[in-house]
Amino acid sequence: MTENVRQGIRSSMIREGEMERRTFLLSSLMAALAEGTAQASPIDPKKTFVLQRGDIKFLPWNGVPPGSGEMAKLYGDFNKPGPYLVLMKWNPGWFSAPHSYATDRIQMVLSGTWWVNSGADFDPKRAIPVPAGGFVERIARTFHYDGVPRGISEPVVVAVFGIGPVDIKLADPHLPSWRQV
């Protein structure tokens, strides 16, 4: 018998062995399902909390101009020690003033496009767009600003995670914390 023939027989045996194993596993699963033994238990809300998209409540941010943005607090509180997760909705025509936080923040754009920039100077025309699916990391105590320019048709929704308290500091506390652009 040649080496090529031996390899062909071995390959065939391996394929048959894999097929037998798959058939056995599949038949065991099908038998369990047919007997009704594979039933899921109802969700325990004490162990798994679910908030459906339609049940998320956005509320106006405190201390910002009316109509500029809203927030939905999903987990924790960014003004208290510990992790937090919020959804921030920015309406077109508004930017934050340059500011920083005491801790790092990570953000994911969920819908729309968010414009971001770094630095204590405020020049929204130099902000770069981050469309839905984009990720932004803000390093603690580095000044930055962000928002949605006027003329954009939809607000942006950004998921923000960090460790509180955030201890926000404005680059220039004499100027408004939000600016209409």
Shape: elongated
Please tell me the overall pLDDT: 87
The side-by-side strand order for the widest beta sheet comes to 1-2-3-11-6-9
Helical/strand content category: alpha+beta
Biggest sheet overview: 6 strands, antiparallel
N- to C-terminal distance: 82 Å
SSE order: HEEEEEEEEEEEEE
Catalogue the unreliable spans: none
Question: What share of the residues does DSSP label as strand, in percent?
Answer: 25-35%
Number of helices: 1
By DSSP, the count of extended strands is 13
Provide the helix percentage.
10-25%
Radius of gyration: 27 Å
Short description:
This protein has 181 residues and is of the alpha+beta class. The chain has one helix spanning 3-35, and strands spanning 59-60, 69-75, 82-90, 94-96, 99-100, 105-111, 113-118, 128-131, 135-138, 144-148, 156-164, 169-170, 178-180. The strands form three sheets. The protein has a six-stranded antiparallel sheet with strand order 1-2-3-11-6-9, with no helix packed on it. Strands 8-7-10-4-13 form a five-stranded antiparallel sheet, with no helix packed on it.
